[in-house]
Amino acid sequence: MENVLRPLIVIGAAVVITLAIGWLVDRLLRRTDARHTETPLWGLLRRCRLPLQCVLLIALLRGSYEKAEVFEDHTAGIGRALSLVLIGACAWLVVRIAAAVVESSYAHYASRSHDPARLRRVRTQVSLIMRVVTAVVAVVAVAAMLLTFPAMRTVGTSMLASAGVLGIVAGIAAQSTLSNLFAGFQIAFGDMVRLGDTVVVDGEWGTIDEITLTFLTVRTWDERRITMPVSYFTSQPFENWSRGGAQMTGTVFFHLDHMAPVAKMREKLHDILRECPAWDGRDWGLAVTDTTPTTIQVRALATAKDADDIWTVRVTIREQLVGWLADHHPYALPRVMTAFATPSPNGATDHSAPDGTAPRTGRG
Predict the structure, then answer these.
(1) Rounded to an integer, what distance in angstroms lies between the CA atom of residue 299 and that of residue 302?
(2) pLDDT band at 201 (very low <50, low <70, confident <90, very high)
(3) pTM
């Protein structure tokens, strides 16, 4: 009976103590969170309850499992296994605490700042900092686990002697990875591109959806995801439509006949914009920007508060102006010169019409 009760008492006591401490800590954090509503830190720290209980339970078992007097022939193996699990649980707890602190700092900053561009910059930096912290904690935890094995300590000592040569070889082999890693830091703290920015990369228009230390994801307007190495953004030119503010000016070009009623088009453009919710009212205009022997180029411009709205404004202008011209001024749309080609008696091609008149024009 003693052989059964002893392990039950040891394990049961560890579980009860763990649950009691976890409940007390959670209750304390809940009261503190209700008392200090100006910061979400205490509420975020409540997410650490599960890893905290894991650390407490494993630590208690690690210190008292010998008193349970079970599997006495495997005491060393059980102790090492509990040590490995304890190191992993501690790493989990540290990552959760760091995430709570970082998210709380960002939330506090976001509540005080009203600049969307600055918020995107801080959010990008916070995201990358959290990834770095997680990577560092994971590396340290793995190293600590390996050092629990005596054989690994001997290997580590011998490897230190050749660390210089191995470092050079590893640096050459991981040159691309290291360049992306440093490019990630440059993007995070150089404010080149941020989460939520609207960019044009390789002719693709999209929004920055994710930034890591090695790659960056662009979500296009048709919901595709383009994954690119972050080193691309430090070595290649790209368009950032959100840089310096989200407001934008959009243009729409029309190729029309020389008889096009430009003044009436200008009035119609203003009417279209007044009925378009996406237009922010800052500026608009219509002007003839170029001419050719057969057409004129008319440019309409308008403004909007961001890239999504400027797209809506441009397609609205294009659709409604072309429809208005087709309904009320069809002569203004471009025409293509056409004629019947008939062979002449001398074998040359005659481009005149069958009745001998000049070539006619037709809508094309």
Answers:
(1) 10
(2) confident
(3) 0.49
